[in-house]
Design goal:
- This protein is an alpha/beta fold.
- Helices cover about 30% and strands about 30% of the residues.
- It folds into three domains: about 1-90 and about 180-190, Periplasmic binding protein-like II (D-Maltodextrin-Binding Protein, domain 2); about 95-170, D-Maltodextrin-Binding Protein, domain 2 (3-Layer(aba) Sandwich), CATH 3.40.190; about 190-314, Alpha-Beta Plaits, CATH 3.30.70.260.
- Strands 1, 2, 3, 4, 5 and 11 form a six-stranded mixed beta sheet that branches. The chain has a five-stranded mixed beta sheet with strand order 8-7-9-6-10.
- α8 (about 215-220) packs antiparallel against α9.
- The longest helix is centred in the C-terminal third of the chain and has 16 residues, at about 295-310.
- It is elongated, with a radius of gyration of 23 Å.
- Its EC number is 4.2.1.51.
- Pathway: Amino-acid biosynthesis; L-phenylalanine biosynthesis; phenylpyruvate from prephenate: step 1/1.
């Protein structure tokens, strides 16, 4: 990898986006080169082609759920691994060019996700507004200084630190507890060591479209005491009714129960994509019932090995 690429991190820009805030949480990225991109595909292409060592991308929102563009990209681009996750509280402000009043706002520029998360406020305060989609929350604000198609923009708090705009309204988010989850993606094959507060991400397909297939896949985790913190379906795209499942598991693949569940999943599913095991953003330890502890799995394997080798019973 070229020296410049080894020092470069890609993110959805420009400066000031929620993705930028997430990348600010990565110690390894500090004092390195950051490359602003326009979309998830460009960010991941930077990683695949070696222009960047890693990319920060949004993968889930507490209000809107999974980010479908990210999930589909991770399913279709080989060789990617998630190395960490980061949480960013989400809130928005309405900004406009200096001298603009709220009564003068008729058209709002906003990223589609931000627009969805502020709809109730917009419908209450600006019931007759029009919407122009933007590629990012910050580009929505920046566009006000370049073109005059919109009167105002939905943007992150602090946007006026970067652009000469005025805040017309604050705290626009429909939910005060909204959080977006970001992941750092690279090409590394080195697994972070288990911390006891870990998450494992996979994508799996059902072998057949038949009654009980999904239940059989879920049993691979349930019978081994592995909790799923996320499961979402995405169309595979080759035929109607064909879906893949994006799954987050509580635990590390080096945990015996998770490793055993992954073996079961691989035997069951025709296509399993391992996306990585990494520390949870909230650092909350994963509670594991004693019957699913590592030593229980190790003892069971030793017991079976003794039977197969003809060892005498204790």
């Amino acid at each position: 990898m070229p020296d410049a690429a080894a020092e470069t991190y890609s993110y959805l820009g420009p400066v000031g986006t929620f993705t930028w805030l997430a990348l600010n949480q990565v110690p390894e990225a500090q004092n390195k080169s950051w490359r602003a991109v326009n979309n998830v595909g460009e960010a991941l292409d930077d990683v695949v082609t070696g222009r960047s060592v890693a990319a920060m991308i949004a993968i889930e929102n507490s209000i809107e759920g999974g980010v479908s563009a990210t999930q589909d990209a991770l399913a279709s681009i080989p060789g990617l691994r998630i190395t960490g996750e980061y949480l960013v509280p989400v809130d928005f402000v309405l900004v406009a060019r200096p001298g603009t009043s709220l009564e003068q706002v008729h058209v709002v520029n906003a990223h589609p996700v931000a627009y969805a998360q502020t709809r109730r406020w917009l419908e209450r305060a600006l019931p007759e507004h029009g919407h122009i989609p933007a590629s990012s929350n910050v580009s929505a604000a920046a566009s006000l200084l370049e073109v005059e198609h919109a009167d105002a923009a939905i943007a992150p708090p602090g946007i006026t630190d970067h652009y000469p705009l005025e805040v017309l309204a604050e705290r626009l988010a429909d939910s005060e507890h909204a959080v977006t989850r970001f992941v750092l993606v690279s090409r590394t094959r080195v697994l972070p060591e288990p911390t006891g507060a870990d998450k494992t991400s996979v994508i799996a397909e059902l072998p057949v479209d038949a009654p009980g297939s999904l239940l059989e896949m879920l049993e691979q985790f349930a019978t081994r005491g592995v909790n799923m913190s996320l499961i979402e379906s995405r169309p595979i795209g080759d035929a109607l009714g064909r879906y893949r499942f994006v799954i987050d598991l509580d635990g590390h693949i080096k945990d015996e129960r998770v490793a055993d569940a992954m073996l079961g999943l691989k035997r069951f599913s025709p296509n399993v994509i391992f996306l990585g095991s990494y520390p949870r953003a909230d650092r909350q330890p994963v509670a594991v019932p004693s019957r699913y502890a590592d030593e229980v799995f190790i003892e069971a394997r030793d017991w079976l090995r003794g039977i197969l080798s003809g060892e005498p019973d204790d």
